[in-house]
Give the backbone structure.
Amino acid sequence: MPIIDELAGFAPFDRLTAAQRGAVADLARDVTVAAGTRLFEEGQEAEGCWLIRSGQIALETAVPGRGQVVVQTLGAGDVLGWSWLVPPHRWQFSAIANAAVAAVVLDTDRLKDLAEHDPVLGYPLALGLLEVVLGRLQSTRARLLDLYRGPNDR
């Protein structure tokens, strides 16, 4: 399936026209990653937006007294990477492939330029990415509440 057609299946691109999705597809490349591969570390400079076709990616964060904790596992149809859009452009989580991953990765330097120069594309793209951020926030909140629940809190 051509990348332009795949973009329509990912939330950040639902609001874009076919022509706008075509412009975004021009910034995409196919990638595969082996299980166990660390994609990036929390705090590193953020670049790339991953559209997961298959496989699993665990998002981890350091929790005081508990070490690295998985806060969410992403799979087919999920979007990984919004930190490139918001200063200071640092990853908010670490990411590791739990299983082999096939994905489309967008060149986010070029995507930022495209969005800045074309607000008719940039605004709906930003709204779509905000939906991803809100979903990630809710998932992380639920996971952390579960981690900190006491044995008598059930």
